[in-house]
Amino acid sequence: MEMGFIEIGDEEYQDLLMAILQQYSYDFSGYSKASMKRRISRFLINKNLGTLRELKLRILADADYFDFFLEEVTVNVTEMFRDPSFYLSLRKNVVPYLKTYPFVRIWDAGCSTGEEAYSLAMLFKEEAILARSRFYATDINGKVLQTAKEGIYPISCMKEYSRNYIKAGGLYSLSDYYHARYNRAIMDSELSKNFLFSVHNLVHDGSFNEFNLIVCRNVLIYFQKELQEKVLELFMDSLPVFGFLALGNKESLRFSKIEKYFQVIDHKEKIYRRIN
């Protein structure tokens, strides 16, 4: 065992994943093995668990503990207006097209604790299309979705979020969109009026609507190639012709099976439009 790392063998790793699949119907077999092993190892160390077998027994015996495990090992790194240049591009290259529709549906897939969904809502409000938009914000993790529904964040984060907002082309002040109370920032309820938060597992849940814009940023990088292809096909099935798909800046449709169905709108920001 290295300092700060517990070595996890392939056989015991696969045994844990199979047990989780059988008991809770969560399939992690398509996730990046190296990334998942790192996160599980960190979990073992932080919770003072000596072996993977001990973790498996606790997970199988206690559904609440599994929820706790799920929250820790699924990636929930997010912030408001993360990568401001992405929002600038969205405002310039995508919103003008969305404005031509009488009603707009947006899927924020892998929304985590909701900062991205609220960022999109602010942008849509400033572009005068929020009232005729419906946001579907989904994640595998029900606990982070609860945070997203509440729309309450540490006030200490708002300084950085404000800088992001300004760089993203914000027209006003970020403080116009939340109420400060003690050490918390409570998001304006108008932003989430047209939100629908729901648990959705990209690994095995199917398409549930047709969308004009799908945003799934920095999620595919944690999947192996085969699962990436499966999720991208799910997104294509959920987009009509001329619908937009936005990925993270380290993700791409290049060399994917669905690449030929899309036009590159912004190569740097990984924004695509379905053309056939």
TrEMBL record:
Domain of life: Bacteria
Domain CheR-type methyltransferase: 1-253
Annotated PROSITE patterns: CHER
Transmembrane region(s): none
A GO molecular function held by the record: S-adenosylmethionine-dependent methyltransferase activity
Name of the molecule in the record: Chemotaxis protein CheR
